[in-house]
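Translate sequence into structure tokens.
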Amino acid sequence: MSFGILNNIPALQAEAALGTTQMDLSTTLQQLATGQRINSGSTDPAGLAIANGLSANIAALNQSIQNANSGTGSLQVADGALSQVTSLLNTAVTIATEAASGTVSSAQRDSLNSEYQQILNEINRIGSSTTYNGTSVFSASTTSIFLTDANSSSTITSTVGAMSATVLALNGTAISGTDGTTAQTALTAIDTAIQTVANDRGTIGAAINRLQDASAVMTTQVQNLTAAENSIMAADIPSTISNLSRQSVLAQTGMAALAQANSQEQSILRLLQ
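Result follows.
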């Protein structure tokens, strides 16, 4: 065996091995500190790309769920308002039926008509003042709810329609007069208006159900995608702790090996003594 001092090959080998161990140890410590297996692109480039794609899907779906919930909220406000309109129309039926009776005087019909006209005014007020998030609920325009998972998109549309005494064909009706003729005519129009409102509520209810179903599906997608992302990104803590113990031992033995390799050169000095 020859001795030389030009290069200390064992020391270089020990240093290289120790450097690798220190890098692995640093990665393991970072994984434990963050709870993530992937903390940089160099750890797992393909895995990081997949996880980032899943994260984008999750973000888009969560916002789409919020969009669907907002759409549901708007429709529920409209349905609640129409419920009140139905209650008002039922009251109108009661007083119109009373006014249609031949036992009611003209003065009494005029009094009943005043109440009836107030009902029509309240229906107009509900139609013009009911809002959701600052936007009128009763509008002839179509509302589109945008849904996406960052890869594909779709829309769910709904039209509530305007609401007023004119829309319900009640504008101009009255229950006054010397007999019950006008009240009977108004009663027929009120019955038709009640059916119109019922049909509108049915349409709104179907749209609410669709949005709620879409939201439930997207919620399930978020859960599944989150689980998939977690399986890629999350560190396996027991395995990581095991790696930490192994790498700590390797770091200590590597330091000892490097010290031993460097001490071998000291033996050459003995030849000069």
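Note: Residues 45-99 form the longest helix (55 residues).
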